């Protein structure tokens, strides 16, 4: 698909899989610096189960084009792209599976366009609307952006270090980060995203989420493997949705957020009770 509207990317790399005629539509939204591969991690369980799955690389990421202007990376922009993808696919409603930045975008879309969202699977959210801006965290995001812009993947990794990950997980995480960062056609655009997305607010208050009358699942990660997405924040998000349970691995086990099979199981359970018609 191509877009030339100001504020939109020059193109979005969109992938459809599974039966298009299926009533069950599942949209995948990846996290900052990731690509569409990094939601289901290669699992095809949803497609084999008869679901129509739509994934796309966010603006400036993966195979997608850079936005115009190059700084257009607010959550308003990210929400507009998700809406464009489902509009161009002629999808009325979809279950949205979002990771981190993608989870925040999914909730924003559900708040602003509740008629288009049939259910939510929110993986490792990190946004806390009640917290003031953490200048130290923003400084690190800026340093990562500078490292990427100046030195490419190696420059990014030099700044990333061990990412605060526990020693037993650090080599795995660092290798995965290196592989993920190498997939971007426009690394300078990803650097811009690193500066802007953490400064953007997907919504203003948790009270906005309480009115969402759709099935929701939240997936968290133990802090040893993923300190950038605190488990306490995932617990808070789950509590906002009332009866929503938090899915999280046992301490010492690989995160559910890294398991396409587990994510697919949870997404299928949400899709099974979601309404895909008005």
Descriptive overview:
This protein has helices at 37-40, 45-48, 75-88, 101-112, 135-160, 170-181, 187-196, 231-240, 260-273, and strands spanning 14-17, 25-29, 52-56, 94-99, 117-123, 216-219, 246-247. It is of the alpha/beta class. It has one domain: Rossmann fold. A seven-stranded mixed β-sheet has the order 1-3-2-4-5-6-7, sandwiched between helices. Helix 4 links the parallel strand 4 and strand 5. Helix 5 (135-160) packs antiparallel against helix 7. The radius of gyration is 17 Å and the shape is globular. The model is unreliable at 1-6 (pLDDT under 50).
Tell me the CATH topology.
Answer: Rossmann fold
- The tally of beta strands, per DSSP, is 7
Structural class comes to alpha/beta
CATH superfamily: Alpha/Beta hydrolase fold, catalytic domain
**CATH class categorisation:** Alpha Beta
Largest sheet: 7 strands, mixed
Q: Into which percentage range does the β-strand content fall?
A: 5-15%
Shape: globular
Instruction: Count structural domains.
Output: 1
User: Separation of termini?
Assistant: 26 Å
**Gross CATH architecture:** 3-Layer(aba) Sandwich
Strand order of the largest sheet: 1-3-2-4-5-6-7
**Rg:** 17 Å
Low-confidence stretches: 1-6
Fold blueprint:
Elements: E1 14-17, E2 25-29, H1 37-40, H2 45-48, E3 52-56, H3 75-88, E4 94-99, H4 101-112, E5 117-123, H5 135-160, H6 170-181, H7 187-196, E6 216-219, H8 231-240, E7 246-247, H9 260-273
């Amino acid at each position: 698909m191509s877009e030339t509207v100001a504020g939109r990317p020059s193109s979005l790399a969109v992938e459809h899989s599974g039966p298009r005629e299926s009533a069950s539509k599942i949209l995948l939204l990846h996290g900052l610096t990731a690509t569409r591969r990094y939601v289901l991690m290669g699992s095809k369980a949803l497609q084999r189960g008869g679901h129509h799955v739509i994934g796309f690389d966010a603006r400036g990421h993966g195979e997608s084009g850079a936005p115009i202007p190059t700084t257009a990376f607010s959550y308003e922009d990210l929400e507009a792209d998700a809406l464009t993808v489902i509009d161009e696919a002629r999808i009325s409603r979809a279950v949205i599976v979002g990771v981190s930045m993608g989870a925040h975008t999914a909730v924003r879309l559900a708040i602003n366009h509740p008629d288009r969202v049939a259910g939510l699977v929110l993986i490792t959210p990190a946004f806390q609307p009640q917290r003031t801006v953490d200048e130290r965290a923003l400084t690190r995001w800026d340093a990562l952006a500078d490292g990427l812009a100046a030195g490419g993947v190696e420059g990014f990794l030099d700044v990333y270090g061990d990412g605060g990950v526990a020693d037993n997980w650090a080599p795995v995480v660092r290798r995965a980060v290196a592989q993920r960062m190498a997939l971007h056609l426009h690394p300078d655009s990803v650097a811009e995203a690193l500066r802007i997305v953490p400064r953007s607010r997907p919504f203003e208050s948790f009270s906005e989420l309480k009115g969402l009358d759709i099935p929701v699942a939240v997936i968290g990660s133990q802090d040893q493997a993923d300190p950038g997405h605190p488990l306490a924040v995932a617990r808070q998000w789950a509590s906002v949705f009332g009866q929503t349970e938090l899915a999280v691995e046992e301490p010492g086990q690989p995160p559910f957020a890294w398991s396409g099979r587990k994510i697919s199981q949870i997404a299928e359970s949400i899709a099974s009770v979601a309404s895909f018609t008005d």
